[in-house]
Amino acid sequence: MNPFEERIQQFSAALSREKIELCVVIQNVDLYYFTGTLTQGLLMVDDRGRSRFCVQKPVSRARQESRITPVVPVKGPRDWGPQLADFLEGRQVAVLGLETDVLPWDTAQRLQGLLPGARITNVSHIIRRLRSVKDASELENIRAAGAILGDTFAALARFLKPGLRELEIAAFIEHHMRLAGHQGVTRVRKFNMELYYGAVGISSSVRLPTLFDGPVGGKGLYAAAPFFAGNAGFEQGDTLLVDLMAGVEGYLADATRTYALDPVPEGVDRTHAVLLSIEEEVRQRLVPGTVPETLYQLALERAADAGMAEGFMGYGENQVKFLGHGLGLEIDELPVLAPRFSEPLQENMVVAVEPKYFDDTLCTGVEDTFIVTPEGGLNVIPYPPEVIHL
């Protein structure tokens, strides 16, 4: 049994424990997690260990890439009914599991109409828990993504000079990362959240709030795309926050480094040192059994002790209520280092820890991607976290 088949069996067992007879998986990232291919299609999984992978497009490629068999071609939603009936073999379904956090209402209603009497329940929490613990191949891809980021940060230190616009810096980053193997696309599960490679911003622009649920702001080029980089210039006295994601085989790593074009405000390095100490304390506690919300509370206490509570994790309305987030096929996976996240960490979870600070004169931050191990967080970003002075 290969890892993808094992994932389906684990999922089926979880469905059985929660008294869900049938689940239909449709979201493309979840489909990729269970099958190894991105398709227009659906995956039926029941509580007895059975599954059926139906593909509308591209069937030929799905047959080449899919790690589960067989691949059943369908022409579209009109074929869902016959396929479900054949798969169920006359069995009545009382509870139908769907990814209701991401599935369109019309699609959910169509599926419920094919199973009269079935009650819909959300299964995304089950899938996300499964996805939160990575296997060896997933970790290898995340390490490879981390290596791209480390190399990019080093190349950027050689490239930066006074007068460059954020957009020029972003274009250099994109060029370098893509040639290094970055997949380009970065995926977010939360509804209406969009993101590019991350955020690139000088002192003034990173204070500007955006709709994205993160501490780093930005102006962007237009109101319609307030992401990644705008036209602000990098001049003496500025710090530059570079918050990037790279992906390999779908799997993401996330990191932030701060560059300073001297002379910068005196407090930059002192403030950054507090952030590094917070990150290190948290890293030491990234062990199986740690409760995520306790790490968030620890960070808040350390920031308050340093007189940094007001600007910790965002400027003004951009301040967020988390310290870190899970990573994998999406940027907002479990676990989350935030209030009310009380399920203990498990070995081989992957967490981005991102202490950042902003006020009217200072903007600095760090972020690294860690694998949870019994010895503490294992960093996959091979580049020093201190402020890079230019």
What do these coordinates show?
- The chain is of the alpha+beta class.
- It is 33% helix and 21% strand.
- It contains 10 helices and 17 strands.
- It has a 6-stranded mixed sheet with strand order 4-3-2-1-5-6, with helices on both faces. A 5-stranded antiparallel sheet has the order 11-10-12-15-16. A 4-stranded mixed sheet has the order 7-8-9-17.
- The longest helix is centred in the middle third of the chain and has 24 residues, at 136-159.
- The protein is elongated.
- The N and C termini lie far apart (53 Å).
What's the arrangement of secondary structure elements?
Elements: H1 3-17, E1 22-25, H2 28-35, E2 40-46, E3 51-57, H3 59-65, E4 71-73, H4 80-88, E5 95-98, H5 105-114, E6 119-122, H6 124-132, H7 136-159, H8 166-180, E7 198-202, E8 239-248, E9 251-260, H9 267-284, H10 292-305, E10 324-326, E11 333-337, E12 350-353, E13 356-358, E14 363-365, E15 368-371, E16 378-379, E17 388-389
Parallel strand pairs: 1-5, 3-4, 5-6, 9-17
Antiparallel strand pairs: 1-2, 2-3, 7-8, 8-9, 10-11, 10-12, 12-15, 13-14, 15-16
